[in-house]
C-alpha cells in the first residue's frame, strides 16, 4: 500500500476516501486518531493519511488532484453585498447571515 494523501484534518481525509470509493478504489485511513498528539511529536506525524493498493496508486493520485482542484483554495478578499436584502457581508462568508441567500447564486 502507498500513501496517496494526508491532511491535518481527519474529516478531509475521510472526504478523499469517499471520493476514491465512488470511483471504485478502496482506501484505508491511518492516523486519524493522532491529532491529540500535536505538540508532542512532529506535526506532520499527526496527520490522517489515505492509503491505497499499489496497483491503484496512479488512478488514485489523479482522483485526489481532481478532488483538490474542485475545492475552494482561498477566501474572498472583499466584503460583498447580498443581492436579496442588501446586507453587507464579511468576505469569509458564502451566505447572507440576514436572509440566507448564497453569494454564488
Plain-language structure description:
There is one protein chain. Helices cover 25% and strands 18% of the residues. It has two domains: 2-69, Hypothetical protein rpa1041 (Alpha-Beta Plaits); 74-105, no CATH class. The chain is an alpha+beta fold and 105 residues long.
Throw out a few tags for this protein:
25% helix; 5 strands; three-stranded antiparallel sheet; two-stranded antiparallel ribbon; elongated; 105 residues; alpha+beta; 2 helices; 2 domains; Alpha-Beta Plaits
Task: Give the helices and strands, then pairings.
Blueprint: E1 2-7, H1 10-22, E2 27-30, E3 48-52, H2 57-69, E4 80-81, E5 88-89
Antiparallel strand pairs: 1-3, 2-3, 4-5
Q: What fraction of the residues are assigned to beta strands by DSSP?
A: 15-25%
CATH class category name of the largest domain? Alpha Beta
Low-confidence runs of at least 5 consecutive residues? none
| Strand ordering within the main sheet | 1-3-2
Secondary structure tally: strands: 5
Average pLDDT: 84
Form type: elongated
> How do the SSEs run, as a string of H and E?
EHEEHEE
Question: Per CATH, what is the topology of the largest domain?
Answer: Alpha-Beta Plaits
How many helices? The count is 2
The H-level CATH homologous superfamily of the largest domain, spelled out, is Hypothetical protein rpa1041
Amino acid at each position: 500500500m502507498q500513501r496517496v494523501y494526508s491532511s491535518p484534518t481527519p474529516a478531509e481525509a475521510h472526504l478523499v476516501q469517499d471520493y476514491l470509493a465512488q470511483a471504485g478504489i478502496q482506501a484505508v485511513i491511518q492516523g486519524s486518531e493522532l491529532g491529540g498528539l500535536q505538540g508532542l511529536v512532529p506535526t506532520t506525524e499527526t496527520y490522517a493519511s489515505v492509503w491505497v493498493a499499489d496497483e491503484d496508486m496512479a488512478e488514485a493520485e489523479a482522483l485526489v488532484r481532481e478532488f483538490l482542484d474542485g475545492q475552494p483554495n482561498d477566501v474572498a478578499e472583499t466584503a460583498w453585498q447580498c443581492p436579496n436584502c442588501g446586507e453587507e457581508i464579511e468576505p469569509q462568508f458564502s451566505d447572507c447571515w440576514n436572509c440566507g441567500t448564497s453569494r454564488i447564486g
